Structures are given as C-alpha cells and as structure tokens.
Amino acid sequence: MPTRREIFERRQRRRANLIAALSTGAVLLAVCVLVPLSPGWESVQRAFFNGAIFARTFPGLLEAFLLDVAIFAWCAPLIAILALALAIARDLRAPALTPVRLAATAFIDIFRGLPVILVIYLVGFGIPGLGLPRPWNSPYLWGSLSLILVYAAYTAEVIRSGISSIHDSQRAAALSLGLTETDTMRYVVLPQAIRRVIPANMNLFIALQKDVALLSFIGPVEIFRQAGVYKSLLANFTPYVGAALIFLAVTIPATRYADHLMNKQRRQQQ
Amino acid sequence: MSLLETRGLVKSYGGTRVLDGIDLTIQAGEMVCLIGASGSGKSTFLKCLNLLEPVDDGQILLDGVDIAEPDLDPRPVRQRIGIVFQSFNLFPHMTALENVLLAPCRVHGRRRQDVSPEVERLFTRFGLEDRMGHYPDQLSGGQQQRVAIVRALAMKPDVMLFDEITSALDPELVGDVLDVLRTLRAEGMTMVLATHEMGFARELADTVCFLDNGRMLETAPPAEIFTNPQNDRTRAFLARVL
Ligand SMILES: Nc1ncnc2c1ncn2[C@@H]1O[C@H](COP(=O)(O)OP(=O)(O)OP(=O)(O)O)[C@@H](O)[C@H]1O
Ligand SMILES: [Mg+2]
Ranges for the ABC transporter domain (chain B) (predicted)? Predict the structure, then answer.
C-alpha cells in the first residue's frame, strides 16, 4: 500500500512531467514553424544545412579529426607530467630550491595569463622562425608545445587546489609515523589530491580537445582547417556544421561523464 | 630515570599561551591520563610530545635527552612516540593493511613480506584479521580506530599517546577500543591518554593529571584525585563531569 505522501508525490511528479513536456513541445514547435518563416531562412539553409554537401564532406572531416585526436593524445600525458612537477615545485620549501619555486610560479603566472592563440602564434611562428632544420621546424611540434605549456599551467593550479584540500590531519598522521615530508607527499597527500581533482581536470582536457583546432592557424590540417578548405572549394558553410557535430559528439559525453564523477564525489564527501 | 619528562613546557598560538609551563614525569610502563575541560590544552600537549607541534620553551626529555631542541630532527623521536587521534586519520585510499605497512616499509626500510607476518599478528590480536583488505570507509568507527592503533603499534614505539580516541565513537563501539587499551596496559606499554572517560581513567590509570588553561593543576593517583581532589578547580571540574 502506498502511503498518503507517496500518492501525493506521484501526482505531483506526473503533473510536473506533463507541464515540462507541454512547454518543451510548444517551444520546439515554435522554432520549427517560425524559423523557416523568416525571410533569410532559404539562403541560410542552403549555406549551412546542405544535405548533399554534408554527406560529401563528412568522411573527410572525420579523417581530419583523427589528427585532432592524435595531437590531443600526445599532449595530454605530457601536460599531466609537467603539471604535476609544477604543482610540486610551487610549494617547495627548501631554501636551496627557491629558484625552482620561483621559476614554477613565474611559468604558471605567464601561461595562465596569456590567450592560448597568442602563445600558439608566438611559439608556433617564433621558434621555427629561428631557421631550425627539419624536423625541428614542424608546426606540429611547436603547436603542441604551446598547448602543453598553457594547459600544464592550468592543470598545475588545479592539482595544487587538490593538494591544499587534503586535510592537515592526514599530513599529521603520516608525519607522526616518522615519514619524511617527501614520502608524506608521495604516498599520502598526492594520491588523494589527484583523485579529488580528476573531474576538474577532465573539464580542462575537454577544453584542450577543442583548443587543438587553434593549431590550424599555424599550419596543421586538422578538422577546422579541413572544413575551411571544403568551404572555399564548395562555397558552402555546411562543412563547419559537420565539424561542430563531430566535436559535440566527443565533448558532450565527456562533459556528462565529468559531471557524473563530480556529483559522485560530492555525494561521497557528505 | 623516567622514560619521558617535560619541564616548563610552553606553547603559544598567536599570543595565547595554550600550554603554560607543564611539568610531568612518566615512568616506563606507566599509564597517565590527562583530564580537563575542552580547550584546556590536552591535544596540544600530546602533539608537542611527539614534536608534531614545535614547542616554544621548556624541555622534553626522552630517556634523559632533550628532544625539544629546535634544530633536532623530529623523525627519530616520532618513531619512538606513537600517537592515535580522535578522528582516526586513516589514509582513505589505502586498505587497512596498507595503512599499517606504509611506515614500517618506508621509514624502517623493511620489506613488505618481512613486516606482513608481525602486522597480521597485530590485526589478529585486536580482532581485525578479516578486515585487513578493507578500506577505511568500509569499516565501523571502532574498527577504524583499532586499525589506527595497530598502525601506530607497528612502528614498535616506546610510548603511545592517545588523544580522546573514543570521543568520536558510538557508545556501543567504545568498549572494543577500551579493551585494546586494557590489553596494552597489561603488556606494560607506556601510555599517555587524554580522555573524557573518567570511569576508565579511574580503572586503569597510574596517574591522573588535571589540566586547566594550559596548566597542570593537580597530579595524583586516581584514587586520590577522584575521591579527594585538592584543588578547587579540579573539584569543580569533577563535580561537573562525574
Ligand atoms: N592550530 C591552532 N591554532 C590556534 N589555536 C589553537 C590551535 N590548536 C589549538 N588551539 C587552541 O589551543 C587551546 C587548546 O586546544 P586543545 O585542542 O589542546 O584543547 P583540548 O584540551 O584538547 O580540548 P578538547 O577536549 O576539546 O579536545 C584551545 O583554546 C584551542 O582553541
Ligand atoms: Mg583535544
């Protein structure tokens, strides 16, 4: 037998669902009816939503996207390693290591303070401009390095926030057993801190996957550039829509997963 | 010679003297209970004893050697003086067994397979043999606290400090943890215990110390301090808690 409260809540829930469905349906209907009625719709549809062009360019876009994925795949582990080193270096307390600490601090300040595209231009055009021989003049190399520098700075700060979120009593417990500061960091603080910042770092890595497209400005023919090539060739913007769909197919599930992890963690901490 | 002794121990936090000249002598095999109101300085005193908090002034003599020396390496001292906290402070990302093995392996540099047998014996002795592979969040508060005790004991300390180790436990779990203390008492472990469990202090302590605003106002065997306290403030405190 359902209780009075359960019957009441079920009725409430049914009402809420009905209202949500009706209002969503109304908005969708309005969009589908009203947008095609607008005067410029025909030309927009031809320029952005051309089915034939979409079908023709999509496989090529997908192939170009593999390069985005590859760049992401070699940048991500290097970012993780550099970020960890930076996060640790920033909190070094030994006087002899002051230069290391200062360098890490400066690094993080600089690369967090610059627009990604600016770093890509400066590093990506500047360094090969020195007249380096192949393969050292590759835009892939220096473009990737730009992404690594910028994203390592952000990731380092996230890791640091994780480190400072570990309660002091954990450090006290480790030190009270006679562990060194280094071992305390390595075996007690860092493993917990890193686990705690995984969702936040996932969001950074999703942003990284999108920012790989910026490398197109210095040469690599990745998906954004490929879409541009198709656009010029076919005088049509539909390839950009295709590229957008490909990005979303990757980033939306990843974002949802990060949110899921974040919520799970919040529940565990309560 | 006493095993552990403090002379005029002073500790301040931002201008307030939390410990204001504490003298205490602990003999080997003795069990000392610290009682006193919340904020009287019990936890701070224990943390100073194993150098988790730097001392401002005074001496701490361990086997006659002053360990309150500011430039002394605290690690060898901490290996000899174990501490168990009110909030367990187990490492949540390690199993109970890994929690206990970490320090013997990293600090003493012993191999895991060499330490494991004796650690497993400790687990068995405190009724935890089937909990070794569990993570802290899979254990009850009482089990977690016993693992924390095992973790400290695995370093084979000469002195154990316990900071209100039953205060965070549900009443029905307190008994198991107190049984562990009884066992250790029977084995002759030297212990300093900050506690609100007056009945337990009365039953097991050799000496009870009353701490008030960072001062040790009265030090006496339980039979004396509980039945005939000399100091007015001790009397007032006991009247409130008993
Ligand atoms: N890290 C700290 N910084 C500043 N003040 C502190 C710090 N730790 C303790 N104190 C202060 O020192 C005093 C003594 O605290 P302590 O924790 O030693 O008391 P206690 O006797 O253990 O109390 P309780 O029974 O509540 O555990 C308190 O007034 C507390 O506010
Ligand atoms: Mg306390």
Answer: 4-238
Domain-by-domain residue ranges, chain B? 4-90+157-241
- First vs last Cα of chain B: how many Å apart? 35
pLDDT at A43 > cutoff 90: no
- What is B4-90+157-241's CATH number? 3.40.50.300
On whether the CB atoms of residues B231 and B210 are closer than 8 A, the answer is yes
Q: Quote ipTM for the complex.
A: 0.93
Which residue has a Cα nearest atom 29 of ligand 1?
Answer: B39
- Which 3 state secondary structure label does DSSP give B30? coil
Confidence of residue A270 (pLDDT cuts 50, 70, 90): low
Rounded-to-integer distance, Cα A222 and Cα A65, Å: 6
Return the structure tokens found at B241.
């808690």
Interhelix angle A98-113/A51-90, nearest 10 degrees: 150
Could you say which of B78, B85, B103 has the minimum Cβ distance to residue A169? Answer: B85
* Distance of alpha carbon A191 from alpha carbon B98, whole angstroms: 14
Q: Which CATH superfamily is domain A50-269 in?
A: MetI-like (1.10.3720.10)
One-letter amino acid at B50 equals: N
Q: Which ligand 1 atom lies nearest to the CA of residue B36?
A: 21
- Name the strand (E) or helix (H) holding B207: strand B207-212
Nearest to B210 by CA among B170, B174, B241: B241
Handedness of CA A177, A181, A185, A186 (dihedral sign): negative
| Number of C-beta neighbours around residue B152 at 10 A | 23
**CB B6 near ligand 1, within 6 Å:** no
Mark yes or no for CB contact A179/B50 under 8 Å: no
pLDDT band at B155 (very low <50, low <70, confident <90, very high): very high
